[in-house]
Design goal:
The complex is a heterodimer. Chain A has helices at residues 5-23, 30-41, 56-66, 82-86, 122-134, 169-173, 186-197, 210-220, 227-238, 248-253, 260-276, 284-295, 303-308, 312-324, and strands spanning 45-49, 67-68, 71-75, 87-94, 97-104, 111-115, 136-139, 142-145, 151-156, 175-180, 208-209, 254-256, 300-301. Chain A is an alpha/beta fold. Chain A has two domains: 1-75 and 110-118 and 146-222, Rossmann fold; 224-325, Helicase, Ruva Protein, domain 3, CATH 1.10.8. In chain A, the strands form five sheets. Chain A has a five-stranded parallel sheet. Chain A has a two-stranded parallel ribbon with strand order 2-11. In chain A, helix 1 crosses helix 8 (210-220), helix 9 (227-238) packs parallel to helix 12 and helix 12 runs antiparallel to helix 14. The longest helix of chain B has 44 residues, at 394-437. Classes of the chains: A alpha/beta, B mainly alpha.
């Protein structure tokens, strides 16, 4: 489907509608909301990281309400089993015969909230791998395709590390964005209290459908990218690798840089940014704006980086500066 | 690449604007850097008191301009840079880059239209003229200040000492050049004056011409003096190689002996030898040769015999005197040999006493006398012994041969003497050139000073200096040891006359000094000098027999 002005308008209008709807309940966090919605438009999964009580789960719940899609939630705990996620075969008595019937897990939805994902065991975490990447589930030699659109919104707590299992790099790489939810400002805090302190709670009505999301994804993929901008993107991604041309901090603190999948994510997100900005072309500013959420979880720090407690965000910024030079 | 003229026009304007700013920046930076470099380089001269050569500024300026030009060329805005710069400056968010890309790859695509719809209104508001770059005031001020310093340094005159040294060097260079030309001219003149092959052989003018040509026109006085001194040394060596003092002394003795002769020819020969007119003396000597005779004819012809006897008598008269002089010289030589190193006149004269045939002059004289005596004896035998065997006239031939050898030797000596004189002239000219280059004299050469009538000059007008070689007082001016008149005299106690000759000798020396001083005066005409010289010579020759 070729890009047309109505398609672009649809993208922007739909995006704005969802954003507005979400904002009726979620106070502030505009950037987080935009990034989550961009990831949804791009068909990506989001990992939200923040201390408890910042509204991560509420954000996902609200987005699910705003988008008329099937929403499910899994609370990840250490005793959670993979079958609890993807589903299992159960023995059922059907017309006097007993047969194994596949009982779909909670992943069979359009939007899955994997709350506190790092509390589950790696085995359970890995159950999401195929689901996130291939958007299908294989149980007992039977592959079950998920309904599109499908998004995984995972949350994790960065401070309570006891009894947690850090996500493996392979799984981290499958997240389109990693968003860090910060504390609200003073005014936002007051607004939160106002909105949630009374008996009435704001109701979020659905303003978009799954079809709209899929159409938005098609539209954004039509946004052209100039070779110069694409070169810049490649320089940024390659700049996260500790090679000869990398920034000094990258060479010092990074063991492995971002993968091409990161580049794909950045390009898609940059296209969405361009459309949101009313443009039909990607700019370097778009690349810069999506570099942090797309790259921060994809950098594997070296021992020195871990020991120094280096924030990946600083390293990504250095890579951007190096690419601009 | 792009089919959008608006974009291309904007890019061209943008690139021009950028290049304008770039050239302004580069120009100021270049002036600053060049001025700084010129100051540093100028200090190298200024601190030593010299004026900074203009070439330094020219070179620094040229290098700076070249570097600036290369830098500006390299930093000129390229089309891709213009695209990026325009996108950045006009906040078009890579709109131009995308538009160019789309226009070239998918000009008719919907995406291209959509993108252009966004870009076109923004492009219309882009004003290249509004792009401004702050003028680099600080750099410009520093460049101006440094430039002013450079100009000041460039205009600084050299210190008085350096200026004096430069003027001196310049003057020295000019003087060396002038001296060189004068010497070359002199060599040419000397070459033209060469008459005898012996003279040419002894002079080696080609060698000296090369040496003169190789003189470097330096501004360093010491170096100039060294160059002239080296050539002078070579001339001195050449002159020393031509030295024939002992032969000349022998001839002087011979002149003394010949003056005592009764025959006119012998006395004339003696006079010529005394006057050191060796060429004429050689001719006179050769005239003494007797005709070769046949004994048989002489026996028959008494007149011829008589004529031969007369001729031989003349020859014999001269040969006796010459042989006597030769014996005296031999005696002196033997005595001198006994004294060893005290006889300085006998040393340092390579080839002296050995003529062309390697035979000492006194031996030639003795040989001549022996041959003449034998010839005389032969004639007597022919006259008084009619039965004498013919063929004994070989003695006459030997005598004539000896005469010829002696004459040739004298001609050779004449040639050497002339060559020596020319070398001395050249040496003297070198000395003058040396003095001229050293600033001890204000004029070079022997041309008279002063200018044409009516043109003023502070120089003293003096007549042309007479060259010593032309006024006959060679020996005196050469300053040769033992050759000049002595200021002390020894009484002749052995004369037996009882009359002291001291007063007379003193008078004679006084006359000689007067003559010499007179003939060397520049303001006395040549004709008058010649007359005075002849007068005194006649006077001395007239008084000599009395002594």
């Amino acid at each position: 489907m070729p890009a047309t002005e109505p398609a672009v308008d649809h993208f922007k209008e739909t995006f704005d509608r969802i954003r507005t709807a979400v904002s009726t309940f979620i106070v502030g966090q505009e950037e987080i909301i935009d990034d989550v919605l961009i990831a949804i438009c791009c068909g990506g999964h989001v990992l939200l990281e923040g201390v408890p009580g910042l509204g991560k789960t509420s954000l996902i719940n609200t987005i699910a309400q705003a988008i008329d899609v099937e929403f499910k939630r899994i609370q990840f705990t250490p005793d959670l089993l993979p079958s609890d996620v993807v589903g299992t075969q159960i023995l059922m008595d059907r017309e006097g015969r007993r047969e194994l019937v596949f009982q779909p897990g909670p992943v069979f939805c359009n939007m899955l909230l994997a709350d506190e994902i790092n509390r589950a065991t790696p085995k359970t975490q890995s159950a999401l791998l195929e689901t996130m990447q291939e958007k299908r589930v294989t149980v007992a030699n039977h592959t079950h395709t998920l309904q599109l659109p499908f998004f995984v919104m995972a949350t994790q707590n960065p401070i309570e590390n006891d009894g947690t299992y850090p996500l493996p790099e392979a799984q981290l790489d499958r997240f389109f964005f990693k968003l860090q939810v910060g504390l609200p400002s003073h005014d936002e805090f007051r607004q939160i209290l106002d909105r949630t302190g009374g008996n009435s709670r704001p109701h979020v009505s659905p303003v978009a459908h799954g079809e709209d999301i899929l159409r938005m994804g098609v539209t954004l993929r039509e946004v052209p990218v100039a070779p110069e901008v694409q070169d810049y993107l490649v320089r940024v991604v390659r700049g996260t690798h500790p090679n000869e041309n990398a920034a000094k901090s990258i060479k010092q603190f990074v063991r492995h840089g971002a993968s091409p999948r990161a580049g794909q994510a950045m390009l898609a997100a940059a296209r969405a940014r361009a459309l949101l900005d009313g443009r039909f072309h990607v700019s370097r500013e778009d690349i810069d704006s999506v570099a942090l959420p797309a790259l921060r979880h994809r950098l594997i720090l070296s021992f020195e980086g871990e020991a120094e407690g280096v924030k990946p965000d600083f390293l990504v910024k250095d890579a951007i500066q190096a690419a601009k030079a | 690449m792009s089919t959008r003229p608006e974009i291309e026009s904007l890019l061209r304007q943008f690139a021009r604007r950028h290049d304008g700013f770039l050239f302004r920046r580069v120009a100021i930076t270049t002036v600053l850097a060049a001025s700084a470099a010129a100051i540093v380089l100028s200090l190298f001269w200024v601190l030593r008191g010299h004026a900074v050569p203009v070439s330094v500024f020219a070179i620094v300026g040229a290098v700076a301009a070249l570097a600036a030009w290369i830098h500006a060329l390299r930093k000129r805005m390229t089309p891709p840079a213009a695209v990026r710069g325009a996108d950045r400056v006009f906040d078009l968010k890579d709109g131009i880059a995308s538009a160019r890309h789309l226009a070239s790859h998918a000009p008719d695509a919907a995406a291209t239209t959509l993108q252009w719809r966004w870009l076109a209104p923004r492009l219309a508001t882009c004003r290249v003229e509004e792009i401004s770059e702050p003028f680099p005031k600080r750099a410009a001020i520093v460049a101006a200040v440094l430039g002013a310093i450079v100009i000041t340094l460039g205009l600084l005159p050299p210190s008085p000492a350096v200026r004096a040294a430069e003027e001196l060097a310049h003057e020295t260079r000019q003087r060396v050049e002038e001296s060189k030309q004068e010497l070359e001219k002199l060599i040419e003149e000397l070459e033209k004056d060469i008459t005898a092959p012996e003279e040419k052989e002894g002079l080696k003018l080609d060698e000296f011409r090369k040496l003169v040509k190789s003189i470097d026109e330096t501004g360093n006085r010491a170096e100039a003096a060294r160059q002239f001194a080296r050539i002078e040394q070579k001339i001195r060596d050449a002159s020393r190689a031509l030295d024939q003092q002992r032969d000349e002394e022998t001839l002087k003795l011979a002149a003394g002996e010949l003056a005592k002769a009764e025959e006119t020819e012998a006395r004339q020969l003696g006079k010529k030898l005394d006057a050191k007119e060796l060429k004429e003396a050689a001719e006179l000597l050769e005239k003494l040769a007797a005709k070769k005779f046949d004994p048989k004819d002489l026996k028959a012809d008494k007149k011829a015999l008589s004529q031969s006897k007369q001729d031989l008598a003349k020859m014999r008269a001269a040969s006796k005197r010459l042989a006597a002089a030769g014996k005296q010289r031999q005696g002196a030589r033997q005595a001198g040999g006994g004294q060893g190193a005290n006889n300085q006149g006998g040393e340092g004269q390579p080839g002296e006493g050995a003529g062309d045939q390697g035979q000492p002059l006194e031996d030639l004289m003795a040989e001549l006398d022996d041959a003449a005596a034998e010839a005389e004896k032969n004639l007597e035998e022919i006259e008084f012994d009619p039965d004498a065997e013919p063929g004994e006239c070989e003695a006459m031939g030997r005598a004539n041969g000896a005469l010829g050898k002696l004459g040739k030797r004298m001609r050779g000596m004449h040639g050497k003497r002339m060559a020596q004189g020319k070398l001395d002239q050249l040496r003297q000219a070198l000395g003058q050139a040396q003095a001229f280059t050293q600033g001890r004299t204000q004029m070079l050469g022997q041309s008279p000073g002063g200018k044409e009538a009516g043109t003023g000059s502070s120089w003293s007008e003096r007549k042309e200096r007479d060259d010593s070689q032309k006024n006959g007082s060679l020996t005196q001016l050469q300053g040769r040891h033992g050759s000049g008149p002595s200021l002390s005299a020894v009484e002749e106690s052995e004369s037996g006359t009882g009359v002291s000759s001291r007063r007379g000798e003193t008078k004679q020396r006084e006359f000689a000094r007067q003559t010499e001083s007179f003939v060397q005066r520049d303001d006395v005409p040549e004709a008058l000098k010649l007359g005075v010289r002849n007068y005194f010579e006649n006077l001395q020759s007239a008084t000599r027999p009395e002594k």
